[in-house]
């Protein structure tokens, strides 16, 4: 009887130990990464960290930034991963992101990281805008290929252009900010007023205008260059046009809650293995040893706008309020 009791107790103890050892700690990660890559990043992280499970909360950059600001006094996120550098700068200034030095920081290109002291966010990749131009639709409609931003204001393009709403899309905001920073504020707002005359609609996704152009729903989409390159490689009849002053930004990671599991997510997100996944989607990544060329990606080095990410963060609310007052009536309904 005693032996049977001891055997039962031992089996119970071993079962509890096994359950404990395989119980995963869940980390809530807020992100604006495109939906179709989230499972890949989650699976790769969890394969190397089997005791931690990522719980994604995903939305576009503008909506995710607003959510984090609204939850400032009761944060629900533990990590922010894949959010625009300008948003990260704003979150840091609001005290939402914690200063942290992740393992492997010295292996990154520092140009994509928080430039201020007590760094709180770190680049994953850099992404760029482009004009996605459907050659077949343009031929049917006798639309000439634009070569400059000013070309897009010509009457011939009226109703043929889609662009992301900057209040809900980081891709949209970085182009609006590029115009403001490089044209000058008065000239940029006048330009956007003229451009709005030709806009068919504003989307709530940064990649959607290029997808719509690729499908022929519009002739022109101001959108993510990487999405355009991917669609072109898949056979979409697109030309990717990059006028001087093209908007760009980094996507970055930062710590919200100071836990060991959250820190491990941040550490892995800047690792070489993570960067080898980023480069499948983005042509420029943070890790110094990870370099590749994306097929059909345009040469953007000579046309990149000068971008001040801290300024983008500081001006964000005022710029978006002004933009929304002027142009939001053409935005697609939010799903």
TrEMBL record:
Keywords: Signal
Signal peptide boundaries: 1-23
InterPro entries xref list: ABC_2-AEP-bd, Ferric-bd
Keyword flag Transmembrane helix: no
Protein name: 2-aminoethylphosphonate ABC transporter substrate-binding protein
């Amino acid at each position: 009887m005693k032996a049977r009791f001891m055997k039962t107790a031992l089996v119970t103890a071993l079962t509890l130990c096994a359950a404990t050892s395989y119980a995963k700690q869940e980390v809530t990660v807020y992100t604006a990464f495109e939906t179709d890559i989230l499972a890949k990043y989650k699976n790769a992280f969890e394969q190397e960290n089997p005791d931690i499970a990522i719980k994604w909360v995903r939305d576009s950059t503008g909506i995710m930034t607003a959510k984090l600001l609204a939850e400032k006094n009761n944060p629900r996120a533990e990590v922010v991963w894949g959010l625009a550098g300008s948003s990260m700068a704003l979150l840091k200034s609001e005290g939402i992101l914690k200063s942290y030095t992740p393992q492997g920081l010295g292996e990154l290109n520092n140009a994509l990281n928080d430039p201020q002291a007590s760094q709180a966010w770190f680049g994953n990749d850099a992404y760029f805008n482009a004009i996605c131009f459907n050659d077949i639709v343009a031929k049917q409609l006798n639309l000439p290929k634009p070569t400059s931003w000013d070309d897009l204001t010509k009457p011939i393009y009226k109703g043929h252009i889609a662009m992301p709403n900057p209040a809900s899309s980081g891709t949209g905001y970085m182009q609006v900010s590029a115009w403001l920073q490089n044209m000058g504020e008065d000239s940029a707002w006048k330009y956007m007023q003229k451009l709005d005359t030709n806009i068919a609609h504003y989307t709530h996704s940064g990649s959607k205008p290029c997808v719509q152009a690729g499908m022929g729903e519009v002739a022109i989409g101001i959108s993510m260059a990487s999405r355009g390159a991917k669609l072109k490689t898949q056979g979409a009849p697109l030309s990717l046009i990059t006028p001087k002053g093209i908007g760009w930004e980094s996507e970055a990671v930062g710590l919200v809650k100071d836990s060991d599991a959250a820190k491990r997510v941040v550490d892995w997100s800047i690792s070489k293995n993570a960067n080898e996944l980023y480069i499948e989607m983005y042509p420029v990544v943070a890790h110094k040893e990870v370099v590749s060329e994306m097929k059909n990606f345009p040469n953007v080095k000579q046309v990149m706008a000068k971008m001040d990410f801290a300024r983008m963060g500081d001006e964000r609310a005022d710029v978006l309020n002004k933009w929304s007052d002027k142009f939001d009536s053409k935005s697609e309904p939010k799903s």
